[in-house]
């Protein structure tokens, strides 16, 4: 919250034929003008700039229905999710599910959080959604995890700044479920990003 403006400078009137106006000294023109400079600087730093900062950075939301493709790791295909119309769910009797999805965020935006919604009735399951990046030319090693979440309905924030650079990187989501109870349903309804 921005504090109410409290003026710090108060001008004391000079009296004709009594006060001598001079440049130096505690009551001189230089001193008074420096006090005015300090007043304007405080007004800018504490009142105007914070308001402009709030007005200038509008958080945007991108909400995605997971449309997950199966993938393989080390040559072995992993158990895929069962794709629904507007969600994915673990196949009956499966203990895991894995999927990948391409994602396109606007170039230059700053990712603030990642949220996953769904339903998990398996007490032993670990459900992880992750935004990952890999260089467009595949150099520089494996994919880097930029932000991930293991909790439903709780937004996760990146541990370091995540700024989207589409010229240099490609971005994708992985949604992985491990150690689930076979007959307990696990579903993912959406993945949501907040960015500015």
Task: Give a quick set of tags describing it.
1 helix, 5-stranded antiparallel beta sheet, alpha+beta, 4-stranded antiparallel beta sheet, 11 strands, 196 residues
Report on this model:
This protein has one helix at 29-56; strands at residues 60-64, 72-73, 76-77, 82-83, 88-89, 97-103, 111-120, 126-135, 144-149, 169-178, 186-195. It is α+β, with helices and mostly antiparallel strands. The strands form three sheets. Strands 1, 4, 5, 7 and 11 form a five-stranded antiparallel sheet that branches. A four-stranded antiparallel sheet has the order 6-10-8-9, with no helix packed on it. The radius of gyration is 28 Å and the shape is elongated. The two termini are 20 Å apart. The relative contact order is 0.21. The model has no long low-confidence stretch (mean pLDDT 90).
Described by strand count, sense and barrel closure, the largest sheet is: 5 strands, antiparallel
Measured distance between first and last alpha carbons? 20 Å
Instruction: Compute the number of strand runs.
Output: 11
What are the low-pLDDT stretches, counting only 5+ consecutive residues below 50? Answer: none
Count of alpha and pi helical runs: 1
Roughly what percent helix?
A: 10-25%
- Strand content range: 25-35%
Average pLDDT score: 90
Q: How are helices and strands ordered from N to C?
A: HEEEEEEEEEEE
- Can you tell me the overall shape? elongated
Radius of gyration, CA atoms, in whole angstroms = 28 Å
**Structural class assignment:** alpha+beta
């Amino acid at each position: 919250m921005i504090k109410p403006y409290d003026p710090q400078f108060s001008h004391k009137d000079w009296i004709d034929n009594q006060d001598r106006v001079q440049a130096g000294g505690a009551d001189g023109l230089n001193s008074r003008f420096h006090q005015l400079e300090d007043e304007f600087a405080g007004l800018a730093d504490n009142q105007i700039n914070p308001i402009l900062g709030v007005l200038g950075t509008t958080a945007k939301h991108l909400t995605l229905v997971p449309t997950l493709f199966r993938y393989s790791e080390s040559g072995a295909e992993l158990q895929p999710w069962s794709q629904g119309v507007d969600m994915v769910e673990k196949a009956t009797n499966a203990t895991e599910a894995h999927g990948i999805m391409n994602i396109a965020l606007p170039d230059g935006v700053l990712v603030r959080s990642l949220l996953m919604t769904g339903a998990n009735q398996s007490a032993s399951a670990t459900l992880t959604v992750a935004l990952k990046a890999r260089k467009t030319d595949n150099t520089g090693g494996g994919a880097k995890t930029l932000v991930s979440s293991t909790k439903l309905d709780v937004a996760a924030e990146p541990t370091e700044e995540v700024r989207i650079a589409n010229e240099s990187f490609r971005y994708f989501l992985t949604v992985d479920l491990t150690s689930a109870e076979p007959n307990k349903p696990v579903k993912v309804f959406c993945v949501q990003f907040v960015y500015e």
